[in-house]
Amino acid sequence: MRKIRSAAIVLVVMGVLLAGCGSKAADFDVSALGNDLATKITYKDTLSPMDTDTAGMFMNLSDIGITKAAIYEGAGGTAEEIVVFECASDEDAKKAEEVLKTRVQDQIDNFTDYVPEELTKLNAAVIVVSGKYAVLSVSDTPDEAKKIIGNYM
Predict the structure, then answer these.
(1) Where are the domains of the chain?
(2) Cα torsion at 11, 12, 16, 17 (round to 10°)?
(3) Nearest CA among 79, 85, 84, 83 for reference residue 140
């Protein structure tokens, strides 16, 4: 009887663990993640909130269904920025990932001659996509950004 009970417990635990492996990011407050990235990481620049319409001027967001966003940009002297998107679908989040990768590459191109010291940040930019969420963090502390993002996704 003990062997059957032990086997049943093992099967239940394995089922729970396997179910979690394929799961997508649970819903979370996009603004809270953006705020945590903005306040729990030290930046050289002062980051200010930006709306999606303004961000759309330098990122091609027209083909992405974005339901919520938290975007923080510096004054331009550094490449530091935060972008957190909740998209309408997982597919939109994948499109957002490509836009964020393009954004980082554009910034690399822009800062190469302007402020080459910023390339270290840009080359370590954190882009995380899970389910319908896409996040970009450019800072001097990418490991800290990964930890913060990991608390949400």
Answers:
(1) 24-150
(2) -30
(3) 79
Rg for the chain (alpha carbons), in Å?
19
Distance from C-alpha of 68 to C-alpha of 52, rounded to nearest angstrom:
9
In the block, which residue shows the tokens 């239940």? 12
d(CA 78, CA 89): 32
| Other Cβ atoms within 10 Å of 100 Cβ, number | 22
Walk along the chain (153 residues) in steps of 10 and give the mean pLDDT of each run: 36 36 69 98 96 95 97 95 98 98 97 95 98 98 98 96
The answer to whether the beta carbons of residues 52 and 64 sit under 8 Å apart is: no
Angle of CA points 50, 79, 99, to nearest 5°: 65
Rounded to whole angstroms, how far apart are CA atoms 96 and 83?
10
DSSP code of 58?
T
**Prediction pTM value:** 0.84
For residue 101, give the 3-state DSSP assignment.
helix
DSSP per residue over 13-65, as a string? HHHHHHHHHTPPPPP--HHHHHHHHHHHS--SSPPEEE-HHHHTTTS--TTS-
3's enclosing H/E stretch is helix 2-21
